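WARN retry 2 of 3 for item q-0093 after timeout on previous attempt; input resubmitted unchanged.
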Amino acid sequence: MNILQAILLGIIQGLTEFLPISSTGHLTLAGKFMHLISNQHPEQWTAFIAVIQLGTVIAVIIYFWKDLWQIIFDFLSENIKQRKKFSDQKLNSKLGWLIIIGSIPVGVIGLSLKKIIEGTLTKDLYVIAFSLIGLAVILAIAEKIAVLKKDMTKITKWDSFWVGVAQCFALIPGSSRSGTTITAGLFLGMNRETAARFSFLLSIPAVLASGLLELFEARKFLDPSMTVNIIVSTIFAFIFGYISIDFLLKYLRRNTTFVFVYYRIALGIIILILLSSHIILP
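OK item q-0093 returned
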C-alpha cells in the first residue's frame, strides 16, 4: 500500500461510515481493485480497517461532544445522585438509558455471531452486492410508509431496543450500520434527522467497542512499515467522517433518503456485473 492508496481508503471510510451506503462494501471493493486484500494474509487488511475505523469513531464523538457530555452528566446526576424515576428524568438522561438499551442487542448478538460472520461472509462481494440492494428496497419501503412524527423527545425504550436490533443486521457486510438503524428509525415513526442523529449516537458504543476488539485481536498482524499509512488513513477517515455526519444531518432536514436507495441499487448491480464478467473476484 502506498500513501495515495492510504489517503483514498481513509476518505472512503470517512464518507461511507455514516452515510447509509456501507463502508465495508466500499472498502472491500476498493481493496479488491487495488489488490490490497491478500487471501494468504487477510489479517493485515482486517487490522488496517480496524485502526482507521477508530478515526470515524473520534469524528462522531467530537461532533456530538457537547451532547455526549450533557448526556453523561445528566445521566450520572439523575440516576446515581438524585435517583429519579425514568419518567421524571431530563431528555439527556433518558438518552443515556436509550443508548444503553439500544446497545444491548448488538453486544449480545455481535459477540455470538462474530466468528461465523467473519468466517463466511466478510469480504464476499456477492453478499455485499445483495445486501446493498436488499436494504435499499427495505429503506425505500420505510420512506413510503414512514409517518415522520417523532423527534428526540418522543423516542421510547422500545424504539431504542428495535433500532438496536436493526443495528445487528449491520454485521452483514454491505448492509451499513447507519443504513439499518436509520431505516428502523423511519419504520418506528422518527423524522429523518432524528433517525440519523439517534443512529449516530447509538453507533458510538458499538463502533468503539468493535473497533477496539478487532484492533486488539489483529494487533499482531500490524507491520511497523504500515505505521505512516495507518496514521494518514486514520486522519483522513476522521476528517471526512466529520464532514459526512454534518452533511447527512443537514441533508435529511429537507430531503428523503431515496438518493441513497438509488445509489445502493446501482452499486450492487455494478458489483454483480463485475463479478459475472470476472473483472473482480468474490
